[in-house]
Design brief:
By secondary structure, the chain is an alpha+beta fold. The protein has two domains: 5-143, putative nitroreductase (tm1586), domain 2 (NADH Oxidase), CATH 3.40.109; 158-345, NADH Oxidase (3-Layer(aba) Sandwich), CATH 3.40.109. The protein is 39% helix and 15% strand. The protein has helices at residues 5-14, 20-24, 30-38, 78-97, 158-165, 181-199, 202-205, 207-211, 216-222, 235-244, 253-268, 283-302, 321-330; strands at residues 50-55, 59-64, 100-106, 123-129, 175-178, 212-213, 226-227, 272-278, 306-309, 337-345. The strands form three sheets. A four-stranded antiparallel β-sheet has the order 1-2-4-3, covered by helices on one side. A four-stranded antiparallel β-sheet has the order 5-8-10-9. α9 (216-222) links the parallel β6 and β7. The longest helix is centred in the N-terminal third of the chain and has 20 residues, at 78-97.
C-alpha cells in the first residue's frame, strides 16, 4: 500500500537534513556547513541532545540539551555523553572536508554534576583554515542509518571485521567482536530479557512511546524519535499499525508484547555483536568512545553492513543488575568496562530517521 502524497511530503521534509549538499549552499558561515553534517550523528532514541553556541568567527561550543535527556533509562546520562562524542567525530570529519583543522577541547569549564547536566559546554571547538588531509568516511555521513530490521544473509567476514577494527586507534578503547553462535544466542536472550524489564517497568518504559512517532504528522511535527518505517515496517503492515496501534494503544499489553518480541527477534538475527570498552567510566571516556563508535558505524556503512546500537543490557538502573552480571559472565575474559554493545549484519535499508533544522540547535 503506497503512502498518501501528503504523508510522503511530510516525511521528505522531516528527513531533508540527510541531503546536506542541498542544505549547506544556503550558509555563508562555514561552521554551519560543518554542523549540517554533525547533526546527522547517531544518538539514543534519536533525541538529538545537542545545543550549539557560535562565538567569534572560528569557535563552536557544544552543550548537552538538558531538555533532551533520558532520565529513566539513562539516569547518569552516560549515553547522552556518548552522543556528544558521535557529534564531535562527524564535526571533525566535516571540518577537514571543508579545509579546516578542528582543535577540540573537552570540558573547558569543567564537568557538570549529574543534576546540572547541560550547564557547561562539553567541548570548545576552534577551526583553523589550513592544509588538512580529508577523510573518505565523510561521504558515508549522509548514507549511514541505524538499521532496526532483522538481519539476514551471510556471516560477517574476517576481512570485514579487521577493517572495522582498524577504523580507529584502539589504544585505551578496545573493541571486541562476538562471532560464536552460542554466545550470540545467549547475548540475544539477555537483550530480550533486559528490554522486557524496561518495557514492564513503568518509569523506564515511558521513554519508548514518548519518542515513537506513530504517523507522518507526528514525524513532521517533532522531527525526532523513530517511526514504524525506521523499524522496517512497511506496506500493509505499516498501514494497519498506524491505523490501529496509535499512541493511545502504546501502553496496552498487546503493544508491549509486540515490542518485546520485535527486539527479541532482531537480536537473534545478529551475525556479530560488537562491544566497545573503556578503562574507566568517566565523562571524557564516554565522549571518546562515542567518537570511535561513529567511525566504526561509518566504516560499516562503507562496507554495506548494517549496524544497530542495542543499549538495554548496559543501561544503568537497578532492575538490570542481575542481567548485567550474566552478560559479563558470557563475555569473559575481558578488560575494562563495556560501554557500547551493537549488532552487525546485512539488511535491506530503512529510511533515515527525522532530523530537526540546524537553527533549532543554535543557542542565542
Amino acid at each position: 500500500m503506497t503512502q498518501k502524497p501528503k504523508a510522503k511530503k511530510l516525511l521528505q521534509v522531516a528527513r531533508e537534513a540527510w541531503d546536506p549538499e542541498k542544505i549547506v549552499v544556503q550558509y555563508d558561515d562555514v561552521r554551519l556547513k560543518m554542523l549540517s553534517y554533525a547533526i546527522l550523528a547517531p544518538n539514543p532514541f534519536n533525541k538529538q541532545p545537542w545545543q550549539l553556541l557560535l562565538k567569534n568567527t572560528n569557535e563552536i561550543n557544544l552543550y548537552i540539551d538538558p531538555d533532551r535527556l533520558l532520565p529513566m533509562t539513562d539516569p547518569l546520562h552516560r549515553l547522552i555523553y556518548v552522543s556528544q562524542g558521535t557529534f564531535l567525530e562527524l564535526l571533525s570529519i566535516a571540518a577537514k572536508e571543508f579545509g579546516y583543522k578542528p582543535s577540540i577541547q573537552l570540558f573547558p569549564e569543567g564537568i557538570d554534576p549529574v543534576e546540572k547536566t547541560g550547564k557547561s559546554p562539553v567541548a570548545k571547538i576552534i577551526i583553523e583554515k589550513t592544509k588538512v588531509e580529508k577523510e573518505d568516511l565523510f561521504n558515508q555521513i549522509p548514507l549511514r542509518v541505524t538499521n532496526r530490521r532483522p538481519y539476514k544473509g551471510p556471516p560477517i567476514t574476517e576481512e570485514e571485521l579487521n577493517i572495522l577494527q582498524k577504523s580507529y586507534s584502539e589504544k585505551n578503547y578496545p573493541m571486541r567482536f562476538i562471532t560464536d553462535a552460542e554466545k550470540i544466542s545467549k547475548i540475544a536472550n539477555l537483550m530480550a530479557e533486559a528490554f522486557k524489564i524496561e518495557v514492564y517497568t513503568e518509569r523506564t518504559y515511558a521513554a519508548t512511546p514518548k519518542m515513537f512517532r506513530f504517523n507522518a504528522n507526528e514525524v513532521a511535527m517533532h522531527r525526532d524519535g523513530f517511526s514504524y518505517e525506521n523499524m522496517g515496517v512497511t506496506g500493509n503492515i505499516k498501514f494497519f499499525a498506524e491505523k490501529f496501534s496509535g499512541r493511545d494503544k502504546s501502553f496496552s499489553e498487546s503493544f508491549k508484547k509486540r515490542t518485546v518480541n520485535s527486539v527479541d527477534k532482531n537480536a537473534h538475527t545478529a551475525k556479530t555483536f560488537g562491544i566497545m570498552f573503556t578503562q574507566e567510566n568517566n565523562r571524557i571516556e564516554q565522549v571518546e568512545i562515542g567518537r570511535r563508535y561513529a567511525r566504526v558505524h561509518l566504516m560499516a556503512t562503507k562496507l554495506n553492513l548494517s549496524m544497530q546500537m542495542m543499549s538495554q543490557i548496559l543501561e544503568e538502573y537497578e532492575e538490570l543488575v542481575e542481567v548485567q552480571k550474566k552478560f559479563l559472565e558470557i563475555i569473559k575474559p575481558y578488560k575494562g568496562i563495556p560501554q557500547l554493545l551493537f549488532r552487525i549484519g546485512h539488511a535491506k535499508l530503512t529510511p533515515h530517521s527525522p532530523r530537526r533544522k540546524l537553527d533549532d540547535f543554535l543557542k542565542s
